[in-house]
Design a protein that fits this description.
alpha+beta, Phenylalanyl-tRNA Synthetase, Chain B, domain 3, 4-stranded mixed beta sheet, 3-stranded antiparallel beta sheet, 5 helices, 9 strands, globular
Length: about 200
């Protein structure tokens, strides 16, 4: 699915799968109740200190301060803990955010038809960057990144405009940026749950 560069093999244990034949809606009202319930549950749930610490350590091992550049999963949890609801982007992004919030693992979601050639997770090379979603430029030098034949396109904090999922997306790559300390069994459970929810709603 994706290859793991030797420079990150001891840092990250990614989970990944693809789905085709998707229908992505700008907003799916069937998700209103489960997303609201998930947010409410996470406001009172004691977060897994082990997973939070492991994700932060994954960032620190590539020279990133996770309190300044937050993992996407932690940013979602902070938003919900403040009383806000999960952001609504489109139905597929909403499902992945739901799974990321509950698992507290950062996810990446990409339009498979906008990816060229094999995908590798590695450290960004000097000067590498991409146009981000709702951001000007994301710099990935020395940071965990996903890259294809056209260069980097995603990381555990923010993904690229080039491979973003839209209502026109029919095939997607889902990546879980799990720290190496997290068990393979847990990553598999989270991937299976995510795949099942995508099957149900998308």
């Amino acid at each position: 699915m994706i290859s793991i560069g030797p420079d990150v093999a001891s840092i990250v244990r990614p989970g990944a799968f693809t789905r085709t034949g998707l229908t992505v809606l700008a907003r799916d009202p069937r998700l209103d109740a489960p997303l609201r319930e998930a947010a409410a549950a996470m406001r009172t749930k004691v977060e897994s200190a082990d997973i939070t610490a492991a994700v932060r350590t994954m960032y620190k091992r590539v020279g990133i301060d996770p309190t300044k550049t937050r993992p996407s999963s932690e940013a979602l949890l902070r938003r919900v803990k403040k009383g806000d609801e999960l952001p609504r982007i489109n139905s597929l992004v909403d499902i992945v955010n739901w799974c990321s919030l509950e698992s507290q693992l950062p996810f990446g979601l990409y339009d498979l038809d906008r990816i060229s050639g094999p995908v590798e997770i590695r450290l960004g090379r000097p000067g590498e960057e991409y146009a981000g979603i709702r951001k000007d430029v994301v710099h990935v030098t020395g940071r965990l990144t996903l890259a294809d034949a056209n260069g980097p396109f995603g990381n555990p904090t923010s993904d690229s405009a080039r491979t973003m999922v839209t209502p026109e997306t029919t095939s997607a790559l889902v990546v879980i940026f799990a720290p190496a300390e997290v068990s393979a069994a847990l990553v598999e459970r989270v991937a299976s749950l995510t795949a099942n929810r995508i099957g149900q709603f998308a």
